[in-house]
Amino acid sequence: MSTLLVLDDERSIREMLEVYLTRQGHQVTCASNLSDALVLLGGRPFDLALTDLRLGKDSGLTLLDEVKRRAPGCEVIVMTAFSTIETAVQAMKAGAYDYVQKPFNLDELKLLVDRALERRSLVAENARLRSELGERPRNEKLIGKSEAMRELSKLVDKVAQVRANVLITGESGVGKEVVAREIHARGPRRDAPFLAINCGAIPEGLIESELFGHVKGAFTGAVSNRQGLLAAAGEGTLFLDEIGELPKETQVKLLRVIQERKARPVGSVQDFDVQARLVAATNRDLASEVAKGNFREDLFYRLNVIQVRVPALRDRPQDILPLAEHFLARLALALGRLPWKMTTDAANRLIQNPFPGNVRELENLIERAVALADGDEIGPDLLCAEEARPVSSTTAGVNLPADGIDIDHELERVERAYLEQALARTGGVKVAAARLLRTSFRSLRYRLQKLGMKAEP
């Protein structure tokens, strides 16, 4: 039941509004003058106030100002028989939800009251979600109720307090970066920067500059000194995602960073001290990569001081629904609306899905369902993971002609097509296009330059 405050110096108006709005299911309190209304406002919370604009020598705008000062969650509708454009603009600028001109149609007034209360509910719900998603204690970011996630959270708590290097392992899409951020957030470095780099998304010729920085003139295009991520992280954390993709030459230099806590910008003769903590992640079996000669054994042991394995989503089905609800709430917050609700059948379908793409696949599926939903409810028909999942066969859609093809030309053609589609879909916004293509902005810019496409923002 919503609580309404009605302020009007005409008795007939007060009584009519009290009867009508009470019949609509609201709890209505009336005041005949500004002083009484202010006393009522100070004594209890109200969801909505309806105030006449002219109150003898007083003005309803005074009540509006007091409401916004004392109870910013309360909406205000201004009633006036002397409506002008200037009056409406003044009331709206002061924070009124809307105004209505006397004599008013009761059906129109009901619609206006319902909309004002709906807005108040939406603002309150968004504030709650923002508190839960944005201002909640950092250690609640690991979403899940399963025993596996509880154990993972305990391990993260311990790891966060020490300086040792950490290697986070797990399948693609399980949330390794989320774990890395939690290690940073729960430890003494929480107030320092957390920087991340995907070692597989940066072209081989640029990865060293990204990590170590460079000096002016170090290579073509180095028009000024540039700080690398190791220096920019300061005393914080540098997250090296997909560390198994790091080129061999860079592996040697990273090993020196770990051993000596020093690094040298590309083209420089001066070292700088490295204070940042290194947290690496991989979806590969690095021990196997060492055996194959693809990854340095000494670097592997230096990184793998503490290993944190993130379990696959199929091994913790209890976490599917909490994660789905988290994604629905986050999308609703971003769009400024109330969260969607899943039907029981939809929830059951989610639980039965295998999710080979793990948490990332679940998140994408929820985003797809929200985009296709017609109302506020998510049904099972919107949660068909098979339709959203890529074809697993490595030869699907590939037709090699009998006389062969120019593979470099063909790959360039496909790459150009994807880049053009991503830019078209995002309206030319390159940061958004990079996100759509699951790559970094710098990698996208490099690809555009390579293909002779416009690369500048």
The end-to-end span amounts to: 51 Å
Q: Number of helical segments?
A: 19
- What's the CATH class label of the largest domain? Alpha Beta
Q: What structural class do you assign from the helix and strand content?
A: alpha/beta
User: In percent, how much strand structure appears in the residues?
Assistant: 5-15%
CATH architecture of the largest domain: 3-Layer(aba) Sandwich
Characterize the structure shown:
The chain is elongated. It is built from 19 helices and 18 strands. It is an alpha/beta fold. The strands form six sheets. The protein has a five-stranded parallel β-sheet, with helices on both faces. It has a five-stranded parallel β-sheet with strand order 9-12-15-8-16. Helix 2 packs parallel to helix 3, helix 10 (248-260) crosses helix 12 and helix 17 packs across helix 18 (430-436). The longest helix has 28 residues, at 106-133. It has four domains: 3-133, Response regulator (Rossmann fold), CATH 3.40.50; 141-311, P-loop containing nucleotide triphosphate hydrolases (Rossmann fold, 3-Layer(aba) Sandwich); 316-388, Helicase, Ruva Protein, domain 3 (Orthogonal Bundle); 407-450.
Task: Sum up the structure in keywords.
19 helices, Rossmann fold, Helicase, Ruva Protein, domain 3, alpha/beta, 5-stranded parallel beta sheet, 46% helix
Layout: helices, strands, pairs:
Blueprint: E1 3-7, H1 11-23, E2 27-31, H2 34-43, E3 48-52, E4 54-55, E5 58-59, H3 60-70, E6 75-80, H4 85-93, E7 98-101, H5 106-133, H6 147-160, E8 166-169, H7 176-185, E9 194-198, H8 207-212, E10 213-214, E11 226-227, H9 229-232, E12 237-241, H10 248-260, E13 262-263, E14 272-273, E15 277-282, H11 286-292, H12 297-303, E16 306-309, H13 320-335, E17 341-342, H14 344-352, H15 358-372, E18 377-378, H16 385-388, H17 407-425, H18 430-436, H19 441-450
Parallel strand pairs: 1-2, 1-3, 3-6, 6-7, 8-15, 8-16, 9-12, 12-15, 17-18
Antiparallel strand pairs: 4-5, 10-11, 13-14
Helix pairs in contact: 2-3, 5-13, 6-7, 10-12, 13-15, 17-18, 18-19
